């Protein structure tokens, strides 16, 4: 029975997951695989490279840099997160990824993206340093309407949250029967139908399958949450939720608030450390 970690997206809300992950790494708790969606992929890659603290470090340091998430970047480049800065300058110069450890670590790391033509989820396995791995992560984290599609191996992709926001069922199908699932919405949250259906249809009219996937994702998302709650009762998953009193916006740029949501993740992981260890080790 393989043990896995599943990370939901949510842009800067994903720093809650980073806090939980850092405690997991500090305590030497080992999973055999991790699948991340959007920010879950962008921050979850640090689990494979074993870089404790990296996600919170660069997010608080660069959150007010206009290249790292801003309307200015969107108007200038067509991407709210400047691609050159986020996927080249940052991981190779400013706060480098430990690619040597990333490649040697046997942990399987997957990034979930959405195929623009089919509207279906694609699960990229990333295990090598290079442009392809960075494009896998970029495509997973390219939020619709504020990001350009990412071209990879001749196909275009956007945010994995469109098609499979919490890929627990897919991970189980890969043999990961025991999973720690770290969510970025508080307990009891349910997604409502998008109010931007007409805008989505207008801006993405060339991609009807993506339009359909976006306009129906609240249904899939809520069904997955219902399934997760049942799995937890059956002892198949261990769920982490951020507290409702410590929340941040998807594009939060206040370093104090980012630090607070990260610390909330650490606090929850430390509070439930014995439970976490028993679940992973049993």
What descriptive keywords fit this protein?
282 residues; alpha/beta; globular
Short synopsis of the structure:
Helices cover 47% and strands 15% of the residues. The chain has 282 residues and is α/β, with parallel strands linked by helices.
Radius of gyration: 17 Å
Order of helices and strands: EHEHHHHHEEHEEHEHHEHH
Count of runs of 4 or more consecutive helical residues: 12
- Could you tell me how far the N terminus lies from the C terminus, measured between alpha carbons in angstroms? 10 Å
Biggest sheet features = 8 strands, mixed
Number of strands: 8
Helix/strand-derived category reads: alpha/beta
The coarse overall form would be globular
The helix content, as a percent range, equals: 40-55%
- Which whole number gives the mean pLDDT? 95
Low-confidence runs of at least 5 consecutive residues: none
> What is the beta-strand fraction?
15-25%
Describe what you observe in this structure.
- It is a single chain.
- This protein has 282 residues and is of the alpha/beta class.
- Helices cover 47% and strands 15% of the residues.
- Strands 1, 2, 3, 4, 5, 6, 7 and 8 form an 8-stranded mixed sheet that branches.
- The longest helix is centred in the C-terminal third of the chain and has 26 residues, at 208-233.
- It is globular, with a radius of gyration of 17 Å.
